[in-house]
Design goal:
Number of strands: 17
CATH architecture of the largest domain: Alpha-Beta Barrel
Largest sheet: 9 strands, mixed
Number of domains: 2
Distance between the termini: 17 Å
Number of helices: 15
CATH superfamily of the largest domain: Aldolase class I
Strand content: 15-25%
CATH class of the largest domain: Alpha Beta
Shape: globular
Helix content: 25-40%
Radius of gyration: 21 Å
Strand order of the largest sheet: 9-10-8-7-6-5-4-1-11
Oligomer: single chain
Length: 423
């Protein structure tokens, strides 16, 4: 897999949410930041490349209020497991297609969340939106609900590639959705693009990225197309019927998109993400640096430090099970027994350090391995890691300044191998 593929499931500052001062060192204790991820599991149609929980549904049949009520009940139960006081830094509503959810329901959810936790002065609240369910009216309704950042799934500005990706909006509709967001009261607008698609030249990838950048967005995520197991594309690839772009062409696209967006004033602050004016995705930074986050909703993942230690959990991916009001939400361990939580796993300190290296080295600023190891109470430099790091440093693939490790941007194409060597 290319290191610039989309990472995670698919965080704010004291003055402007997501600006440069939001990218702070990982902290613990009463002042530790907390993110909340809310999963909305429904889409109008499942995209063939998507490996996230997204279930096709007629929008008329979405149980807007019933789903909200269960998420609110889960919020109460999960909040009770958070140790000490946490500073809410970000809320991210992902999916699925959250722009299909009634904005009034989203507003009630956000009101409940901010009542539960002390928040940063400029709390980042993001909703993922598809162009097919987003327009000026929806933008204003989301702004009224409290959303201050949207991520628009443009994906491509080429009709043929959009069709190949299973998207059913047109290039013009993708750009119209971005402009609707920019013209609304929503403070920050990000756009997603997928490149490295069969038939796309590096020049075409650059042209799309620049065209979206010039709309005025302050954040852009550019992911290479990756083929995941359990998807329609995965099944086709296994049969040898899916046309794919050669790896060297994808790599060339990565380098040229990086250069073009730099010329447009964007900082390439993470392998797949670009920001202008310091408007980083604060919620995702929380993932990459190993912060705690509550996962709410069907299929949501969460990571918390509880009275029982650090744990990762995944809620049931079945909306029917999640919506079953005959089963009450309670402690994570109990919900695991009841089937409301599908997966519950302890994370020991060594595993936590490896995961922070795995994700944190995607960031341009790298990771402070010394501070992380001290916080977790483990050895930062067992013999094999030290030897591997020394080899990588000698080859120019890794930099070490004090206790901070970074992968030079010129070496990001080799990031997967570099990171694996340190784990």
């Amino acid at each position: 897999m290319f290191p610039f593929a989309k990472a995670g499931a698919t965080s704010p500052a004291s003055v402007i949410p997501g600006r440069a001062d939001a990218v702070s060192a990982h902290t613990t204790g009463a002042s530790a930041p907390l993110g909340i991820y809310v999963h909305f599991p429904w889409c109008v149609r499942k995209c063939p490349y998507c490996d996230f929980l997204s279930l096709a549904i007629d929008p008329a049949h979405i149980p807007h209020d019933a789903y909200l009520e269960r998420v609110l009940v889960e919020l109460d139960a999960r909040s009770d497991e958070v140790i000490g006081e946490r500073r809410l830094r970000s809320v991210f509503i992902g999916g699925g297609t959250p722009s299909l959810w009634d904005p009034a329901a989203i507003g009630r959810l956000l009101e409940a969340i901010v009542r539960r936790f002390p928040s940063d002065p400029e709390l980042e609240i993001t909703a993922e939106c598809n162009p097919s369910s987003f327009d000026a009216a929806r933008a204003q309704a989301l702004a009224k609900a409290g959303v201050n950042r949207v991520s628009i799934g443009v994906q491509s500005l080429d009709s043929e590639r959009l069709g190949f990706l299973g998207r059913w909006h047109s290039p013009d509709e993708g750009l119209a959705a971005v402009r609707a967001a920019l013209d609304s009261e929503i403070a920050r607008v990000s756009a997603d693009l997928i490149y490295g698609v069969h038939g796309q030249t590096p020049a075409a990838a650059v042209a799309e990225a620049v065209r979206v950048a010039r709309t005025g967005v302050t954040h852009l995520s550019a992911y290479t197309l990756t083929i995941e197991k359990g998807t329609q594309f995965g099944a086709r690839a296994q049969k040898g019927t899916l046309p794919l772009l050669p790896d060297d062409t994808v790599a060339e696209s990565f380098l040229e998109v990086h250069a073009a967006l730099a010329d447009e004033g964007f900082e390439h602050y993470e392998i797949s993400n670009f920001a202008r004016g310091g408007h980083y995705a604060a919620h995702n930074i929380g993932y990459w640096q190993g912060d705690e986050y509550l996962g709410l909703g069907a299929g949501a993942w969460g990571t918390l430090v509880t009275a029982q230690g650090r744990v990762r959990y995944r809620n049931t991916p079945s909306p029917e099970r999640y919506l079953d009001t005959s089963v009450a939400f309670g402690p994570l361990a109990t919900d695991h027994e009841r089937g409301l939580v599908q997966q519950l796993e302890p994370i020991d300190a060594e595993t936590a350090l490896r995961e922070r290296l795995l994700l944190g080295l995607r960031l341009g600023r790298g990771v402070d391995i010394g501070a992380m190891a001290a916080e977790l109470g483990v050895d930062a430099w067992p013999r094999e890691r030290r030897r591997a790091a020394d080899r990588l440093i000698a080859r120019g693939r890794l930099l070490e300044v004090g206790t901070t490790l970074t992968i030079p941007p010129s070496q990001w194409l080799l990031a997967d191998d570099t990171i694996a060597s340190l784990l």
